[in-house]
Amino acid sequence: MTAGVALTFDDVSLAYRSDGARVVEHASIIAPAGQITAIVGPNGSGKSSLVRGVLGLMPTHSGRIFAGTTDLLHASAREMSRLVAVMPQREALVFPMLVREYVALGRSPFLGLWDAPSAHDLAVIRGAMERSDVMPFASRRTDELSGGEWQRVRLARALAQDTPILLLDEPTTFLDIAHEMATFETLAREAHSGRTVVLVSHTLTLVARFADQIVLMHDARVAAAGTPRDVMQAATLEAVYEWPLVVSHDPAVGAPTLVPLRRPR
Amino acid sequence: MSTTDGRRQPAVLWIGTGVALLVLIVAGLGIGAVSITPLAVLRALTGQGEAIDIAIVRDLRLPRVVLAMLVGCALGSSGAALQGTLRNPLAEPYLLGVSGGAAVGAVLALIIGVTAAAAVPIAAFAGAVVAVLLVLALARAAGGARDPRTLLMAGVIIGAFASATILILLADVSPDRVRGALWWMAGSLSDSSWLRVGWLAVYVALGMALLVSRGRLLDVLALGDESAAALGVDVGRATRQVFLISALLAAASVAAAGLIGFVGLVVPNIVRAFGVVRHRALIVASALGGASLMLLADLLARTLRAPLELPLGAITALIGVPVFLLRLRRLR
User: Fold this and answer.
1) Which residues of A touch B226 (CB under 8 A)?
2) Gyration radius from chain A CA atoms
3) Taking CB atoms and an 8 Å cutoff, what residues of chain A touch B277?
4) Residue A18 binned pLDDT confidence (cut-offs 50, 70, 90)
5) Strand-strand pairing, A84-87 and A165-169
6) How far apart are alpha carbons B39 and B312 in whole angstroms?
7) Does any CB of chain A come closer than 8 Å to the CB of residue B278?
8) What string of DSSP letters covers B153-212?
9) Which of A167, B15, B73, B214 fits B287 for a cystine, CB–CB 3.0-4.6 Å?
10) A138-169 b/e with 16+ CB inside 10 Å = b?
11) Does A1 map to a domain?
C-alpha cells in the first residue's frame, strides 16, 4: 500500500444521463490521507452520486476527481480500482458464492487473465477477512448471511483491494450497535495506518465520534465542511434537514450528539 | 476446491459428468438401426472387429456423436456466459433470440449462394449480433435491459420474428438448395459431414478459449455494474465482448444443427446447484454437461419412436421447459 494519497473532488458537477439534471453542483472536497472524512446529508442530496462519479458511472459535467495526482476521470477503471476501493451502497448477488471466493475477487484489479492469486494476494485476502471479522463464516454461502454479515463481507472485499483510499457508501447499514461500532473502529484503524477513508453515512452522531472531517451535502451542493464540532451546529443541521433538533455534547467523549425533536403539535 | 458447507460437492458433478459423457458416447455409437455392443464399439473405434461395425461406428455414427458434443459444448458455455453477464439465470441463446437471428443469417447466406462450411457460421454470427442489438434496444424501450423478465420478453419476441422470417424466406426455395424450414426450426444432427464438424470444432474451440480466459472477468461482471466498475472492469466493453463471444458460439451451433433451445438454460443451472459458481469452472462444466445433454437428447430422438427420428429441438424443449418453470419460481 502506498500511504498518503488524498481523494480530491475539484469543483465537480455531475448530471443524470437521462434529463441532464445536476445531482452534484460545484462540489469541492479534499479527503486527506490518514483521516476519516464523512459525507453526510439528507436523502437525495448527492452523496451517493459522488461515489458513482468516482466509479465513472455518472456523466461528469465539469470538474475533476483526483486520487493523489491521478485524474480518475481520465484513468482506466483498472487504474482507479488500484487506488480506490469502493463499497457501493447496494449489492445483491444473483448467483451466490462462498464468502472467501467473494472476498478474493477484491484482488482481481491486480490479476491478469490467467494469473492465479499469489502468496501475497492470499495473505492480503486473509488480513482483510480478519480485520472485518468475517473469518467465522468464510466457508458459508453469500445467500446464507444476515444483512449485517453481508455488509462486513462486502467491507472485507474492499479491504482486500489494499488500496490507499477506501470509499464506502453506507458501510454500517443493517449493522447492530456492536458491529456498527466495530466497523467504525476498523475504519479508524485503517485511517490510522495511513489510508484515506471516505464514507457516506446517515448516522450523524456516530460519524461525529469517529470522523476527522464532515462534509454536509444539501441540494447537490456542499453546505458545510470541517471538523464535527464546526459542522454539527443546530442551526446548520436544522436548515439542511428541515427538522427541529438540538445538538448536545456527549458527556463521556465530548463529541457533538444530535437529538431530533418531535414537532410541537 | 472442496467445500466445508455440507452442500453438494463439485467433485460429484465433475465425476458424474465425466462418467455420463463416456457412457453416452458409447451408447450413441452403439445404439441405432444396427445395435453394436459396447465392447464391439470400443474395438471398432480402434479399427478392430468386423468391417461393417467399423464402418457404422467410425463413418456413420462418430461424426454425428462429435457434432452433438460440439453443439452441446457451444450451447452450454454460451448459456453460462450470458447468464453471468446479464445476471439472469434464465438467459440462454435460444430464449434471447440470438439463435433465431443466427438462423436467419445462415438461411440468407445459403439463399444467396454462400454455402462454404467455413462461411455459413460467419453469416450466422452476423445474424446473431443483429439479434442481440435488437433485443437490447427492445428491452431498453420496454423499460429496462437489466430486468430479467423484460429482457426475456424481448428475446422471445425477436425469436418469433426470426422464425417468421425463416418461414417466409424458405417458402419458395427448393429444398435441395437450402434445407427446409423444419430442419432449421426443430434442430437436427442429420448433416454431420466431417467438413462441417471440423469447422464447428474450430469455432467452438475459439469461443471456448476466449470465454474461459475471461472467467474472472465474468465473476466480477456477475456482481453488478457498480461492483464490477469498483473492481476495475470497464463494464460496457466487457459486456460487449462476452455478448460477441457467446453469439459466436451460438451461431456456430445453429449453422451446424439449427435451432436447439434450453440446453444453455438447463445445464448451467444444474452445474451451479452442485456448487460450481466461479465462471472458469462453470463454463467448462457447462460445456461438458451440454455435450452430455445433447448426446442424451439425440439418443432419445433416434430411439423413442424408431425408425422415426423425432425433432431434436422438441426433445430439448421437453426437458428444458420444466427446468425453466422451476427456476422462474425461485426467481421470485
Assistant:
1) 52, 55, 57, 86, 88, 90-91
2) 19
3) 95-97, 101
4) low
5) parallel
6) 28
7) yes
8) HHHHHHHHHHHHHHHHHTTTS-TTTS--HHHHHH-------HHHHHHHHHHHHHHHHHHH
9) B73
10) bebbbeebeebbbbbbbbbbbbbbbbbbbbbb
11) no
**Amino acid, res. A129:** M
Helix (H, G, I), strand (E, B) or coil at A81: helix
- Residue at A109 is within a domain: yes
Mean pLDDT of A70-80: 93
| Residue linked to cell 459428468 | B17
State the CATH number of the domain containing residue A139. 3.40.50.300
pLDDT digits (tens, 9 = 90+) for A48-74: 999 999 998 888 888 999 999 999 999
Neighbours of A193 (CB within 10 A): 10
Domain assignment of residue A130, yes or no:
yes
Q: Give the ipTM.
A: 0.91
Provide, rounded to the nearest whole percent, the portion of chain B with pLDDT above 90. 67
Q: Say yes or no: B216 contacts chain A, CB-CB below 8 A.
A: yes
Separation of alpha carbons B40 and A37, rounded Å: 75
Test mutation, B3, B85, B216, chain A, max A CBs within 10 A: B216
Chain B residues 145-164 with CB within 8 Å of chain A: none
The domains located in chain B, with CATH, are 10-331 (1.10.3470.10)
A141 with B229: Cβ contact below 8 A = no
A11-47 CB burial, b ≥16 within 10 A, e <16? ebbbbeeeeeebbbbbbebebebbbbbbbbbbeebbb
Q: Give the closest-approach CA distance of B3 to chain A in angstroms.
A: 7
Crossing angle for the helix pair A177-192 and A119-131, nearest 10 degrees? 130
When divided into structural domains, chain A yields a total of 1
> Cβ of B226 under 8 Å from any chain A Cβ?
yes
| Distance between CA atoms of residues A62 and A3, nearest Å | 28
What's the mean pLDDT when you consider all of chain A?
91
Our CA-based measurement puts residue B7 at a distance from the nearest CA of chain A, in whole angstroms, of 10
Half-sphere exposure of B100 (CA within 13 A, CB side): 24
What the block records as the C-alpha cell of B71 is 453443439
The distance in angstroms from the start CA to the end CA of chain B is 30
Which residue on chain B is closest to A84 by alpha carbon? B230
Position A70 in a domain: yes
Nearest CB among B214, B222, B226 relative to A95 is that of B222
User: Where in the sequence is the domain holding A93, given as residue range(s)?
Assistant: 7-260
pLDDT tens-digit series, residues A108-150: 999 988 888 999 999 999 999 999 999 999 999 999 999 889 9
Q: What is the per-residue DSSP string for A136-184? A: GGTTSBGGGS-HHHHHHHHHHHHHHT--SEEEEESTTTT--HHHHHHHH
- C-beta atoms of B230 and A140 within 8 A: no
Question: What's the residue count for chain A?
Answer: 265
- The pLDDT, as a whole number, for residue B17 is 95
**Strands A60-67 vs A70-71: parallel, antiparallel or unpaired:** antiparallel
